[in-house]
Amino acid sequence: MRWSSLVILGGALALTQACNSYDGGNGPTGELPAPSGLTYQVEPVSPATEAPTGVLLSWQSSSDRALAVWHVYSRGSSGGAFSLRASTTSPSFHDAGVPDLDYYVTAEDVNGGESAPSAVVTIDERLALAKPTALNSTSLNAAAMLSWTDNAYTSNPTRFSNYRIYSTSYDLDLNVCGTSWSLEGTTVAPEFLVGALTNGVPRCFGVTAVSVEGYESLWSPLRNDTPRPDSHNVVVYARQAQEAGSGFRFWRDTNHNGQVDAGELGQVGSGTLADNDLTVERDGAGKLFLAPVRAGTGIQIWGNAPAGDLTDVDYAPADGYITDQIQAVPGWAYVLEMSGGDGFARYGALRVTHVGTDYLILDWAFQTDPGDPELIVRQH
């Protein structure tokens, strides 16, 4: 038995009463027909309670002047008796909290006669769609692009409503997601851009599918992602052509506070500085090279083919870095491992977009989270 207080539904007054059982049609019967078109939509699961937060019942409206009010009945189990849940002058009713199992509606005329009941609707969680089977993420500057398998839609397009995207904190050291989940948004497409994130702060994401009845699926595999700064079309000169502007540093802690402050990222400066991550060098044949400079910095080519975009680069490799210079080739990407000066490595990625006689143009990305090798893409 549940009790509710006075509520307003769609501008109409809804009076909820104590559990007065409908007599199954043995009481007064009016002239009104039984209500038709009763449907329901379950409100999606709350991340905090992992249970539906309510159900919205709707049925066909009536212009019959004899209609005074509709009555909503429900029961919590298939063997239980139906009880009066609420009375309303609106052809809908929102039942807050975990829904009952079965519902039906009757109509009462101005003389107090009650119609036969509508068809019964059963709140059947077995109608939930399949969960997304895989979740991918692309790290962006202060954002993360999520994409997932569209199997919930493709398996049953007529019953698919939308996807819900959740996020929480993530502990990189313990490899665990937090417990306080927030709803980032909803979408009908199998992708979603999560913005307004803090660079270098890991987040954990999960996705569910919602059916037209409001049932929410189980969660997709969880995926963590760490947004990081990036930049495009940076010009770095060959040291032999122009010493000024031939050195590059992903992050130079000029404020000496251990924090990534504005203006400290992607610094292009003199090639004579001993704390550069790399310089661009030109050999006697006119070829340009990326040369690691400061202690603790290593470089390697990413992949075995040109990268279509900087976002093709994924997790930084755990080993394989060298301190020798590597030729800069247009379209190819490179990954660097650098000392952070605090016992943790830092990782950055470069993609060369143009190589000229005196300079090259590159895109870069840098992970500000200490020891985090994630640069762009995480895939399940």
Task: Describe, in short, the structure shown.
With 380 residues, the protein is mainly β. It has one helix spanning 151-155; strands spanning 7-9, 12-15, 39-42, 54-58, 67-75, 83-88, 92-96, 102-109, 121-122, 135-140, 143-148, 160-171, 176-177, 182-187, 191-194, 203-211, 223-225, 230-237, 247-251, 265-269, 278-282, 288-292, 298-302, 326-327, 333-339, 345-355, 359-367, 377-378.
Query: Helix content range of the residues, please?
Result: under 10%
Q: How much of the sequence is in beta strands?
A: 35-45%
How many helical stretches? 1
What's the order of the H and E elements? Answer: EEEEEEEEEEEHEEEEEEEEEEEEEEEEE
Please give the number of β-strands.
28
How would you write the strand order of the largest sheet? 1-2-6-5-8-9
Question: Which stretches of 5+ consecutive residues score pLDDT under 50?
Answer: 1-29, 376-380
Radius of gyration: 31 Å
- Gross morphology is rod-shaped
Overall pLDDT: 88
Biggest beta sheet summary:
6 strands, antiparallel
- What structural category characterises the helix and strand content? mainly beta
End-to-end span in angstroms? 45 Å
